[in-house]
Amino acid sequence: MNSVVSRAAIEPRPQAAAEEVVRLIDVKRRFGATPALDGISLSVNRGEILGIIGRSGAGKSTLIRCLNGLERADSGEIRIEGRDITGLQEQELQPLRRRIGMIFQHFNLLSAKTVEDNVALPLKIEGIARAERLKRAQELLELVGLADKAQAYPSSLSGGQKQRVGIARALAARPALLLSDEATSALDPETTRSILALLRDINRKLGLTILLITHEMEVVRGIADRVAVIDAGRIVEEGQVWSVFANPQTDITRSLLGGIRPQLPDHILGRLSATAGSEVILSVDLAGPQAQGALFAELSATLPHSFRLVHGGIDHIQNQPVARFFVAVPAHEPALAGKVEQFLTARSARVEVLGYDTDHA
């Protein structure tokens, strides 16, 4: 059994639960004629996990570099714990950066230093006495499950262990905000799940605010409270994770969700027509109690022989059931698809007509 970690040593200062740690107001950053950030506004409350997701080139890296002061915004405000950092000089940024921890995709550990010394490095830079910083390092290594690796070198660690060291190092200076820059992209799925579980555990134990930059919707689903979708330097969609997954509003969000939401099988998708066929294919998105209730049994009782289920499934995100189904409605009665759609939308489903199946026997 691991020894008890000192709570006083690892817990941040108590703060009001709804206090904003991060607020961005109309932040813009250009590189030549190209806008990398084009009017970003968002906030993150203390203790919250916000996932920012987008494709490569969407502006994620520029955003995170503006948050930690490595890039200067051209205009707008970036407030960390209430203080606007956009006009601060480098010397003024240094104490503020200690309130921000960073974990990286490729770990950024120093190969010539032990695990213990890697974790303690921020405290050494800060001028903390060796005994105190090593005590802190040991506490954090216990927190991330690597107390027995203190004297090991990074070369002897697995990728997941290296990232745990990176997380411990990021927590060394007791930050108010933890920034994660594609921190699981270099890891296999099983290791990714263990790192996300660790981050969620740290978030709950310490009340730590986490901002995740990622291109993986699986990461957002696994850990985030809210998600913001960034595209071409703009936030195009934002909300609770379960809500965005259940009802994505933009094409980019639907595309990013394509790999983890049920999709119409290719052999059916390939034979859809926009004008005529034997069946009309509908996609049906549901969330909340309706997603796991007797909705289709109700539909069958109300409109007998009106549909068949083609494909779909139910997921649970943030303890909310979220479902997507594909329904085929006979096309021989022109009004039937409209009746089915009306029945479902009246019960809070989002229904979309995908086309006509031209080859259903």
Descriptive account of the structure:
- The protein has 2 domains: 232 residues, Rossmann fold, CATH 3.40.50.300; 92 residues, ACT domain (Alpha-Beta Plaits, 2-Layer Sandwich).
- The chain is 32% helix and 29% strand.
- The chain has 13 helices and 15 strands.
- Helix 5 packs across helix 6.
- The radius of gyration is 25 Å and the shape is elongated.
Strand and helix map with partners:
Elements: H1 7-10, E1 20-31, E2 34-45, E3 49-53, H2 60-67, E4 75-80, E5 83-84, H3 90-97, E6 100-104, H4 115-125, H5 130-143, H6 159-171, E7 177-181, H7 189-206, E8 209-214, H8 217-223, E9 226-231, E10 234-240, H9 241-246, H10 251-256, H11 266-269, E11 272-273, E12 279-287, H12 295-302, E13 308-317, E14 320-330, H13 336-345, E15 350-357
Parallel strand pairs: 3-8, 3-9, 6-7, 7-8
Antiparallel strand pairs: 1-2, 1-4, 4-5, 9-10, 11-15, 12-14, 12-15, 13-14
Helix pairs in contact: 4-5, 4-6, 5-6, 6-7
